[in-house]
Amino acid sequence: MTMVERRESGRIRSRRQRRASWDWVLIGSALVLSLIGTLFVASAGGAAAGRKQLLGLLVALLIGYLVSQVEPRSLRAWAPALYLTSLVFVLLAFTPLGIEIAGARAWVALPMGFTLQPSEFAKLALILALASTLAGGREQSGPDNRSVVQALGLAAVPIALIILGNDTGSALVTTGIVAAMMLVAGVSWRWLTGLAAAGAAVVTLAVMAGVLAEYQVQRLLAFLDPTADLTGFGLNTVQSRIAVGSGGLTGQGLFEGTQTQGDFVPVNDSDFIFSVVAEEAGLLGALSVILLVGLVLWRGWRIGLDARDGFNRLVAVGVVAWFGFQAFENIGMTLGITPVTGVTLPFVSYGGSSMIAAWMGIGLLQLVRRASAPQRR
Amino acid sequence: MATRTTTRLVILGVLLVSLFTALALRTVQLTVIQGADLAQAAEGNRTREVADPAPRGLILDSSGRPMVGNSPEAALALDRQALNESPDGGVAQLEVAATALGLTQRQLSQRLISCAEPDAPPRPVCDDGNPVAPVVVAHKAADEKALLAVAESPSEYPALEVVSVVRRTYPFDELTAGQLLGYLGEVSGEELAEAAASGEDLSSFDRMGRGGLEQQYDAELRGTAGRKVMVVDSRGNATGVEQASDPVPGHNLITSVNAELQQRVERELSDALARAGRPKARGAAVVLDANEGRVLAMSSQPDYDPRDWVGGISQKRYEALSRSGALLNYPIQGQAPPGSVFKPVTLLAMADEGFSLRRGYDCPGSYQAGQRSFTNYNSEEFGMISLRRAMEVSCNTIFYRAADRMWRDGGGERVAETEIDPVANAAAELGFGSPTGVDLPAEASGFVASPAAKYGLWQEQRDNWCSDAKASLGELQASNPARAKYLKAIARENCRTGNRWRQGDAINAAIGQGLTTTTPIQMAAAYATIANGGRLVTPTVGKAIVTNDGDTIRAIPAVGQGRVKVSRSNLRFLRSAMTGVPTRGTAVGAFAGFPLAKHPVAGKTGSAQMEGKQSTSWFASFAPAVDPKYVVVVMITEGGTGGENAAPAARGIYESIFGVDTEAVFPKSGPPSEIPKISGVSR
Predict the structure, then answer these.
(1) Domains along chain B?
(2) Among A70, A153, B367, B406, which is least packed, fewest CB within 10 Å?
(3) For B34-104, where are the alpha helices, taking DSSP H only?
(4) How much is the pTM?
(5) 3-state secondary structure at position B564
(6) CB-CB: which of B8, B19, B28 is closest to A184?
(7) Distance from CA of B74 to the nearest CA of A (A)
(8) How many C-beta neighbours within 10 Å does residue B620 have?
C-alpha cells in the first residue's frame, strides 16, 4: 500500500479527507483474503501456481487502483461501450480463440499462453450498464416500465451467451446480480414477483423440454444426494465435504491436508479452494474466510447506503451482490448445500481473470465511496 | 435517505447475512459435528491396505525333498464394484484382464460370479470369497508383460490391480498324489467371517488348503500375510508405504512319505485299474510303517493332478474330475465290504470263543444254514484242513460254520438288540467301525455289522424301507418286473424284520460280507497291529513341522493307542498262517518269481462280492513276515479277485520297497525314523 499512499500524498488533501476517502477495512479484508488465497493455491496447486497467483494479485491491485481513480461521471458515459466490448469478448469464447474447460466455453486464449474468462468482466460491464439504465427512476416509484424492460434486455444477452457457453454458475450469479440491482433500484414488487415467477416457469420448461442436457440437470442436483453418483459430480461434493470435515478445529496444517495433497478434491485450487482452507486451516480458517468476505460485503453495502447518487449506489449494490452471491454459491457447493457449478471464490480462487475482476470491483466500490466522501461530515 | 431505497437495501443486507450465516453454520456442522466421521473417511481415501502374501510352507518327503514347492506368480485382483462403475460396465478392462491372464473373456467372467448368485457356475469356478472384495485370478498362461502394462497405468485400469500370489509347484514330475497333497483354493466369505470373529489373521488374498495335507496342516503351512498400508492419491498411485507388517512365512511339513515309493504305488495302482478294465473301477493303496503306523505312501486312483488347480481350474476340467471319481480319497473314504481280508478278525473271535487254532476243520464246498446255502469260491472242496491252510486257500465254509455256532450260542434271533457279537467285538478291537484318526480330512468310519449295529441301522432306515415297499417302481416295474418285485420284497422284509440279527447276517459278517464295510486305511492299521504284535497304531502322514532353517517347531508323534486285548500267540499264529498265502495260497500267482525266501511277505486276498458287479479286489499284507516293517493294502473296486488284481499291485510295491527290480527305497533297517535336516531348501 505504500505505493498507493505515496501517489496519494502528491495530491493536496487533508489527512482526514484522505482517511475518509480510502476504506481500509474493505481494502484490508480483500487483501488478506487475496493473500490467504495465494497461500492455499500454492498448497493445492503447487509453488508455481502460488507465484502466478501472486503476480495476478499485483496486476489486480494496480488495475483496481486505476479503476478507483476514474471519475464517476465518465464511468457512466463509458458504460455502453464497456458493455458492448464485454459482449464481444464473451462471443470470442465461441470462436476458435475460445477454450473449453470442464465443458464450459468460457475462456479466451490470449497471447503468451494467458487465458481470459470474459464472463468475469462481463459481470462488471453489466453492472455498469444496468446501474446506468435503472438509476433514472424517481425515488418513490422506482424506474419506469421502459427502463425495466431495457434493463431486462441488457441482462438477457450476456446471460444467454453464458448459458450457451455452458457456464451455469456464472449465469446464476449474473441473474442474482440483476435481481439485487432491480430490488435496490426500487423496481415495483409486481415486476419483481412477476419476473421471479416467469424465471421459474422458464427454467421448468427448459428442463422439461430437454433444453438442458440430462447431465447438466444431474450435475445441478448432485449435491442433494451426492452418493447417488459417486463417479461423477457427486464425487466432488462428497470428497469436498470429507476435506472440510477432516479439518477439525484448527486444520491439518498448511500443505498437510491429505485430501488436498492427494488430489482427492477436484479443481481444489480454483473452484474448491475453500475445501483446502477448511482442511488445512480448520474451522477457524474457514470461518475467517467467511468473516472476511462478510466484512467486504458489509463495507460495500455501507458504501451503497452512503451513496448520494442512484447510479453510484447501484454500482455498489451490483458489486456487493456479485461478491455475495458468487461467494455463497462457491462456498455452498464446497459444503454441499448448493449445486456444483464452476464459479470461483472471489479473491481466493486461483485465476488471474477472477482476481483482476474482483479487484476492479473493489476499485468501483472505492470510486463510489470517494464520490460520496465530500458530502460526508 | 429515501426510505424506499433504504428498505430495499436492508432486504438485500438481511438476505446476504442469512446466506453467510448458513455457510458458517454448515461449516461448523461439517467440522465439529460430522468431523470425526469425515476425518475417518479421509483416512480411508488416503490409504489402501495391501496384503503382502506369506510364502506357504513346503510339503516334503521323508528325506526332505519337496513334493510341493512354491514360486511367486503375478495375478490380477479384479474389483467388481469398480468394474461396474466404469462407463462401459468394465468391458474394456475385462478384455485387457482376460488377455493378460490368457483366459477367454467368458472364463474370466465366470470366475467373477459370486457363488452366492443363483446362476453361478459350480465351485470352485465361482468366486467363494467376500462378494465385495476383489477377486484374485491367476493363470498359468498369464502374460507377464501384459500384466506389467496394467500395473503401470492404474488410472487407466481402476478395477485391476496386479498382485503377487504364490503358485504351488510340484517338483516330482511323475508324482501326482493329488488326494494326499490336496490343493489350494480361495478363502470363502464364511471363512473370512469366522477368522475375523476368532481374531485369526486371514485375508481374501490368502489361499487355503483344500483337501489332503494342504487342508489338514493349513494353519501351519499358510503363515500370516503381511500388511502394507499404501498411501495413495486420488488416481490410486502409490505415493509411499506408511506402515508394514512383514509376512510371516508358513512352516514346512515333513511327511513320512517317500517320494519314490509314492510314485511306484501310483503306477502300480493305475496299472491295476487298467488291468481291471472297468470304467467305474476305483483303487486305493496304502503303505504303512508296521511299527509306528507312519504312512509311507498312499494313493487314490483315478486321482486328480494338483497342478490342475494351480491358477484356477476350469469348469470343464472340474466336471470331468468329478465324473471320474477323482474327487474322492478312496484310501480313507472308500468304504467297501472287505471280504476275506477280514478273516483274521473272525479267526481272532473264534479263538476267543474257544475254537482251537491247532486242530483240523472240515472245509466242504458249501454250508447249509436253514434254507440258504453258503458256498466257497467256485464251491471248491478242501476236506479236513488246518486253519492255517484255510487262510491260505481262503476257505469260507469253516468260517460259516463257526459263525453259525457263535450265532446260536449268542441266542440266535432272540439276541438282545444291544448285543455286540464276538466277531464285531474283535473288529472293533482292531479299530474297524470308527475312523483311524489319520491326519487327513474327511475320513470315513466304515461299518461293523452286529445285532446292535443292525438294529441301529433299522431305526434309521425303517421309514425309507417301509415307504419303498409300498412305492411304485415306475419304469423298472415296466422294463423288468421280476427285478422290481425282488427289490420290493427286500424293502418289505427290511421294513418288517430289518431289526433282527439273522443267521445269514452272522454268517456273511464272518467273511467280511453283508453290512460290514471298511476303508483301506482301517485295514492297513489293523494289519499293522497284527504285524507288530498287538500295538494299535494311528496312521500319520505328517512327521514334523519345521522352519525354513530346519528348526523343528513340533514333531508329530506317531500316536499309539495301547495294545489290543488279543494274545501274542494268536497274533503270531495269524502272521505265520498268512505267510503261506503268497507261497502256496491264493496269491501264489501274483508272487510267482518274487524272492519270498529273502523277503517273505504275509498277506490275505479278498474278493468281496457285490451284487450285480465284479467283486472288490483286496490284498492286505505285511513284510517281512517275521518282524514286519511294512504294511501294504491294495483295494480295487470292480477289480475281480484279490489274487488277480490287488495282489500283483502289492507285489510291485514290495519290489520297490525291497529293491527287487530297482534300487530299494528304504535301507535294510527300515523306513527312516529321524527328521531330515532341510536347511537350505529353496522355496
Answers:
(1) 47-255 (3.90.1310.10), 339-510 (3.40.710)
(2) A153
(3) 35-46, 80-85, 91-101
(4) 0.67
(5) coil
(6) B8
(7) 28
(8) 32
